[in-house]
């Protein structure tokens, strides 16, 4: 396996900048997810590693080798595509063994290796079937087997689970997690599904408009999102965000907004610096950190019930305030809440996030700056 390093990589398509001045390092044996919405540059980044796109400027290293302009076949990489890209006229054995065929391996040797990998992926009994004769989950495993049949330094995954139904996606996700841990592969995985990124990655690179806005372990991204964009993208449902007026008085931070009560908070250096030239911040609270509360208490927000979604063991309760802003709570309750009822949601100070006017998260008191 090998590490991957982007050094000031920019990729343009005409005047459009798909990836901008990217500096990113992926360690040997690490599983990195490139996460973001459509058009953020994640697939272009993956294709530059594969050699399917050439950087406009900058340098790309795999291990100690400069591969910026190297042909894909010389990069020692394997790739799993979104649509599996299986040859419909070949059976599974020939599909899996094809990378060995183009490298001149003898038929007996390549078929033996193909069957070995297929057995690991639990599709060894399907080797004589055609792609049209197997399920979507089995096609996904066949595509994965073809990527694994030839030893590579880096394995690339371009949204390989997006064509599977929910049950198969969950099963395949667990399988990939086990496989990566078992093989110790260096893997780069592109997805727009934050649940996949959280479940699979060693580190997540959240991308927006061609830039990496946060690069950290999954729980770091979840617990301390670097920006409001990350907070709104990672989490299901995403973090609740609300503009507030902020003021420091008597050595503590006071936050004010309509239909919201927040207990005074300690003043960190980052908060004090953010309030030197303005008084507006954004308050963030994740849905799972909200619960049904009584009115009149500190650390509460209230409004009219907008939606009450039964999710089985939990409910998603969404209230709407006068300014049309909505707050969603993920709660465990059997209580019946009447439509148009006034609902009060409570939270604790330790779960409050604050963001400055630029959208950057402000470390709270006691957190590293």
TrEMBL record:
GO terms for cellular component: ATP-binding cassette (ABC) transporter complex, substrate-binding subunit-containing. InterPro entries: AAA+_ATPase, ABC_transporter-like_ATP-bd, ABC_transpr_MalK-like, ABC_transpr_MalK/UgpC-like, Mo/tungstate-bd_C_term_dom, NA-bd_OB-fold, OB_MalK-like, P-loop_NTPase. Its main location: membrane. It is found in: Cell inner membrane. It comes from the Bacteria. The keyword rRNA-binding does not apply. One of its GO terms (molecular function) is ATP binding. GO terms for biological process: carbohydrate transport. It is a peripheral membrane protein. The keyword Transport applies. Keywords: ATP-binding, Cell membrane, Membrane, Nucleotide-binding, Plasmid, Translocase, Transport. It holds the Pfam family ABC_tran. Belongs to the ABC transporter superfamily. This is ABC transporter ATP-binding protein. It comes from Sinorhizobium mexicanum.
């Amino acid at each position: 396996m090998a590490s991957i390093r982007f050094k000031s990589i920019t990729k343009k398509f005409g005047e459009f900048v798909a990836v901008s001045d990217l500096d990113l390092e992926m360690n040997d044996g690490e599983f990195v997810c490139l996460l973001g919405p459509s058009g953020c540059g994640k697939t272009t980044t993956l294709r530059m590693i594969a050699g399917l796109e050439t950087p406009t400027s900058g340098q790309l290293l795999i291990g100690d080798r400069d591969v910026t302009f190297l042909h894909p076949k010389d990069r020692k990489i394997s790739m799993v595509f979104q649509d599996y890209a299986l040859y419909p006229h070949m059976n599974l054995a020939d599909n899996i063994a094809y990378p060995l065929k183009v490298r001149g391996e003898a038929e007996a040797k390549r078929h033996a290796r193909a069957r070995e990998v297929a057995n690991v992926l639990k599709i060894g009994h399907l080797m004589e079937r055609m792609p049209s004769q197997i399920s979507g989950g089995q096609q996904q495993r066949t595509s994965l087997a073809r990527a694994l049949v030839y030893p590579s330094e880096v394995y690339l995954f371009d949204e390989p689970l997006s064509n599977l139904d929910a049950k198969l996606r969950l099963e395949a996700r667990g399988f990939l997690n086990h496989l990566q841990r078992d093989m110790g592969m260096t893997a780069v995985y592109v997805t727009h599904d934050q649940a996949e990124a959280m479940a699979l990655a060693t580190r997540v690179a959240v991308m927006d408009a061609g830039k990496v806005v946060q690069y950290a372990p999954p729980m770091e991204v979840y617990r301390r999102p670097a920006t409001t964009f990350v907070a709104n993208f990672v989490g299901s449902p995403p973090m609740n965000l609300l503009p507030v007026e902020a003021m420091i008085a008597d050595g503590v931070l006071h936050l004010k907004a309509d239909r919201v009560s927040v207990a005074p908070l300690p003043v960190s250096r980052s908060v004090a610096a953010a309030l030197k030239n303005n008084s507006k911040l954004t308050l963030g609270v994740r849905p799972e950190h909200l619960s049904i509360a009584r009115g009149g208490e500190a650390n509460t927000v209230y409004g009219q019930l907008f939606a009450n979604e039964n999710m089985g063991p939990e409910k998603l309760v969404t209230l709407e305030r006068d300014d049309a802003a909505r707050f969603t709570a993920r709660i465990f309750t059997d209580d019946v809440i009447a439509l148009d009822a006034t609902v009060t949601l409570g939270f604790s100070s330790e779960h409050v996030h604050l963001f400055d006017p630029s959208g950057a998260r402000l470390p709270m008191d006691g957190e590293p700056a």
